[in-house]
Amino acid sequence: MLVDDNAAFRQSLILVIDGQPDLVVCGEAGSAEDALAILGQTDPDVAVVDVTLPGMNGIELTQEIRVRHPEIAVVVLTMHDASLHAASASRAGAEAYLQKQSGMKPLLEAIRRVTARS
To answer: Half-sphere exposure (CA, 13 Å, Cβ side) for 79?
Structure first.
């Protein structure tokens, strides 16, 4: 599942992830509130979450996902430098923290890595 307030970026991620033979995007949301509303319906293995979201931020969303759906791994994907939010994301329960500018390969590797743990 993808959670990012930028619809164009979400669509780009969907194209890349759905293009992988072993991955599929089962849902998307532009806000934390929307994500929480559909998480139970989509049953994802992994939520890819941006830090900057309208309303509740991605760190708070990560905490909520871990409480409500502990079986869902969280990968934080953001434009923010790791020094700003990586420790908070980890404390909140994120299993990976990546910067958007790192590219798609590290994201796909992180998704596969956290999925393999479950």
So the answer is: 6
